Amino acid sequence: MMARRVLLLVLAGLALLAAMPARALTELDDETLSQSAARDGLSIIVHLDLNSSSTGTTSTSSTVNSSLTWGVTVNGQTNYAVMLNPHGIIDLYAITIDTQARPGGGGDVIVIGLPTYVSFQQFGFDALGIQSNPQAPISGDLGHVILDGQLSLQGQLRVWGK
Predict the structure, then answer these.
(1) Please, are residues 129 and 77 in contact by the beta-carbon 8 Å criterion?
(2) Looking at the 3D structure of the chain, how many domains does it have?
(3) How far apart are CA 30 and CA 13, in angstroms?
(4) What HEC string does 97-116 produce?
(5) Is residue 6 in a domain?
(6) Which residues pair with 88 in a beta bridge?
(7) Bridge partners (DSSP) listed for residue 129
(8) Is 48 or 3 the better-scoring residue by pLDDT?
(9) What does the alpha-carbon distance between residue 92 and residue 115 come to, in Å, rounded to a whole number?
(10) In the chain, what percentage of residues exceed pLDDT 70?
(11) What would the pLDDT profile of 12-37 be if each residue is shown by its tens digit?
(12) pLDDT one-digit tens code per residue, 48-86
């Protein structure tokens, strides 16, 4: 029932976006970008609640029975990484994106700040398999991962053009 509501909400949002007038993307040169004022840049905060109950505890029972697959084709052969029952909660505060003048001139750089706080609550999956059929039960289990705790990061990643 909840999945149906989420799907309807996503479809309504996509319909609203499709109805908006499209604008062509325009390239910004360094001078125009330098004159834009983003103040403190952009901050991205994430709360991801994946297959967990409203109390914050996760369910790894067989009633969840979900999977996440990723297919890779090499030389005409497709194999899939299949994660069984991905679940848990991640809180991430905050990735920042800003621009700064490059030291010594030569334009601006994009500065991506690492999140200062990341929290995991029973985040992981029950089994991992690599197989040719993504629908088949996992036969060669490569293990499971459960993360539970916090970490702090500091630093920046700086990106610039040639």
Answers:
(1) no
(2) 1
(3) 34
(4) EEEEECCCCCCEEEEEECCC
(5) no
(6) 50
(7) 82
(8) 48
(9) 7
(10) 73
(11) 666 666 666 666 777 877 777 777 66
(12) 998 876 554 444 444 557 888 999 998 999 999 999 889
- Residue 68, domain member (yes or no): yes
Is residue 16 in a domain? no
Residue 148 resides in a domain: yes
Token pair in block for residue 63: 């009633």
Cβ atoms 81, 118 nearer than 8 A = no
Element (H, E) at 18: helix 2-19
Instruction: Report yes or no: 80 and 69 within 8 Å, Cβ to Cβ.
Output: yes
Phi, psi of 37 (to 5 degrees): -115, 105
- Read off the tokens for 95: 């990735």
DSSP class of residue 60? -
Dihedral angle of Cα 57, 60, 63, 66, to the nearest 10 degrees: 110
Rounded Cα–Cα distance for residues 87 and 144 (Å): 11
Two tokens at 127?
């089994």
Segments forming the whole domain that contains residue 94:
28-159
Distance CA 129, CA 2 (A): 29
Report the 10 Å Cβ neighbour count for 52.
19
CA 7 to chain centre: 19
Distance CA 2, CA 18 (A): 24
Tokens 């949002």 found at: 13
